[in-house]
Amino acid sequence: MVASTDVKFFSNENTGAPQLENTWGCLIDVLDACLVDGFGSQTVSTLTASSTTVTATFGSVHNFKQHQVVKINGANQAEYNGEHRILEVPNTNSITFQLAAAPSVTTATGAITCSLPALGWEKKYSGVNKAVYKGQNGLDPMFLRVDASLPDGYTTTWAKSAKITVSDSMTDIDTFNGNQMPFDSNNPNLNHVFANNRNGWFKWFYSVERSIYYGTPKTYLIENEGGKGGATRWMIVGSNEFFLFIPRIQTYNDVVHIYGFGKVKNLVTSSDNFALFVSNCVQNVSQKIYYDAIDGLSGADSNYSPNCYLFYDSAGLPNYKGVQHFNSSPFGGTKTNYHGFSNGNTNYSGNVDTLKSYANVGKYFGFDIIGFSEGLPAFKVPHIKSMLQIGSQFVVQDTGFITIKTIELNNASPHYLINLKGD
Q1: What kind and span of H or E run contains 114?
Q2: Angle at the Cα of 296 (from 294 to 302), degrees rounded to 5?
Q3: Distance between CA atoms of 293 and 75, rounded to whole angstroms?
Q4: Is residue 231 packed enough to be buried (19+ CB in 10 Å), middle (13-18) or exposed (0-12)?
Q5: With contact defined as beta carbons under 8 Å apart, do 146 and 131 qualify?
Q6: If residue 64 lies in a helix (H) or strand (E), which one and from where to where?
Q7: How distant, in Å, are the alpha carbons of 25, 201, 281, 293, 370 from that of 278?
Q8: What does the pLDDT read at residue 51?
């Protein structure tokens, strides 16, 4: 069976990948390349088939990774063209992929290229180091605004981040005509302007400094301390309706953070909801920001509540609510068979869903079941599943999964497993 190409992933190690430097605005280049444009086109020296298995060879090191989705273009024989998931990487100069049927000729001809196709998002509006993106497949009219410009009141040497805003109606890069999230009715511009020695509210940090004090790593950053030296390793994995942005934002050790945005599935009604995975640093003054407070999934307290927010509720109404895990989830507890949601300290009554084995994950691939506080329904997060397995930053496995080690929490770092193949 030919593998699905719905789920794609990208890395800073790919040929032609834009880099996350210690500069303002470079996150837009990364998102443009992965969500909208694609990148890394290379000339294919030979394209040959043995039955349905095709081998592409290149004249130099290609830097494609096993299980990535590539796009073949320019072959005179149309059956070779299109998107294909890499089966194997036999060496640094070749890849293999599968066709649905044996091609008409065993050796393709033409001016053939191979590239990494984008996830299929739209870039609706743009500005200087700012962009508004929109996903497909039911995400209309959900807009994701990413402002990675140098904020007023900051200097170029401060820690690098992008302010994140979601809206259901925009007419240009800076105009919100409808509901937006996050939003404070007492301070409508809180996420957009400089106030109290701080600019913005919800952020994706991508370059921060982490100092060592007497051999002990700091557990926090201060925005004006500066960014890291050198480029940030990153990975993006997702589809045309959901993506995760996974940067290694600091250099002390091999851990990463997980941010993202997209469509999620309601466990109760099977309808679609929308969630924003983003920083939960809601301090309105310049002060310490703990690393475990800027991870979209891991959260900032002993219950490992993820910093995720719901934009629309089950009734289809704007409903800005926090999300949380409960009852000793696999992040640090012993109860590993299900998740649910709670209201305060009261557990939701009943088993919401069974945490499926990643060998049998069904339509939504791997997922972690997360629930909403205040009685809102639980939902599935596509592509991701919690897993107590030692990993190192992000590692692509031969089985078609990425293991991710996120931030340290009480010396018990959460680990996740992402299914790349979606089959």
Answers
A1: strand 110-116
A2: 75
A3: 49
A4: middle
A5: yes
A6: none
A7: 18, 10, 9, 10, 15
A8: 96
- The pLDDT tens digits for 351-389 are 333 333 333 322 223 344 454 444 445 566 665 655 544
- Which are the contacts of 259, defined by CB distance < 8 A and separation ≥ 6? 164, 204, 244, 245, 246, 247, 277, 278, 279, 296
Residues 19, 38: Cα–Cα separation, whole Å: 14
277-291 burial by CB neighbour count: b if 16+ within 10 A, else e? Answer: bbbbbeeeeeeebeb
Under DSSP, is residue 291 helix (H, G, I), strand (E, B) or coil? helix
Q: For residue 402, what are the CA distances in angstroms to 4, 68, 277?
A: 17, 11, 19
**Within its chain, how far is the Cα of 372 from the centroid?**
20
Average pLDDT, the chain: 75
Tally of CA atoms within 13 A in the half-sphere of 379 that contains its CB: 29
Distances (CA, A) of 84 to 5, 41, 116, 297, 365: 6, 14, 10, 30, 18
Question: Which spans in 358-406 are helix H?
Answer: none
DSSP label at residue 138: S
Summarised one tens digit per residue, pLDDT across range 134-153 is: 988 766 678 999 999 998 88
**355 phi, psi to nearest 5 deg:** -70, 110
How far apart CA 117 and CA 37 sit, in angstroms, is: 7
Among the residue ranges 77-81, 175-179, 224-228, the one predicted with the least confidence is 224-228
Distance of CA 369 to CAs 302, 330, 380, Å? 18, 11, 5
The residue type of 50 is: S
Length of the chain: 423
Least confident of 168-172, 290-294, 330-334: 330-334
H or E element in which residue 47 lies:
strand 39-50
What is the rounded distance in angstroms from the CA atom of residue 65 to the CA atom of residue 10? Answer: 9
6-21 residue pLDDT tens: 888 999 999 999 999 9
- Identify the bridge partners of residue 129 per DSSP, sorted by sequence position: none
Q: Which pLDDT tens digit goes with each residue over 298-329?
A: 654 444 456 677 676 656 667 666 665 443 33
Query: How many other CB atoms are there within 10 angstroms of residue 302's CB atom?
Result: 9
